[in-house]
Amino acid sequence: MSSSVSQTGGSSEAMRFTVTKMFDDLPCSHRAWAQQGKCSFLHGYERVFTIEFGCNELEKDTGFVIDFGAMKTIRALLQDQFDHTTVIAENDPELELFQALSEKQIIDLRVMHHPGMEGAAEWVFHNVDALVKRQTNHRVHVLKVEARESRKNAVTFTPQRAQASEASL
């Protein structure tokens, strides 16, 4: 994990303080069954998530955006979903086969709406945001998530403007 902190200014939608944390070492397999190419085959790689957190007010005792000790619960959430797991789409026509493999403990199955990096980034955003809001009494929010499948390929998920406006309240 690596991190950085910055202070931002500007519009009411912008958080005054941000911190960025990278979570890596999450080897995972998936398949994009509906894709007409090699991605329709089961394949895997190490997933890396870079999460940007923001707040308008620092934690009063520590002066932190978020205590890095709280990152352990985020890492645990990500490990449970992506560490040595097989992620399959909820509408995969072979879902029953993957469920049978899971029952035989051949794979550690996770079923998601979209198992690719775009779906993973969105899943991480919503689940980590909910966790962090609970931990900080809604003081800290996830601003964006970058999901990286390799050094060449990444996707970024950011909430729609309406969600971003709610996050700054």
Automatic annotation (TrEMBL):
One of its GO terms (molecular function) is 6-carboxytetrahydropterin synthase activity. Pathway: Purine metabolism; 7-cyano-7-deazaguanine biosynthesis. It catalyses: 7,8-dihydroneopterin 3'-triphosphate + H2O = 6-carboxy-5,6,7,8-tetrahydropterin + triphosphate + acetaldehyde + 2 H(+). It comes from the Bacteria. Its EC number is 4.1.2.50. SUPFAM superfamilies: Tetrahydrobiopterin biosynthesis enzymes-like. Belongs to the PTPS family. QueD subfamily. This is 6-carboxy-5,6,7,8-tetrahydropterin synthase. It comes from Photobacterium galatheae.
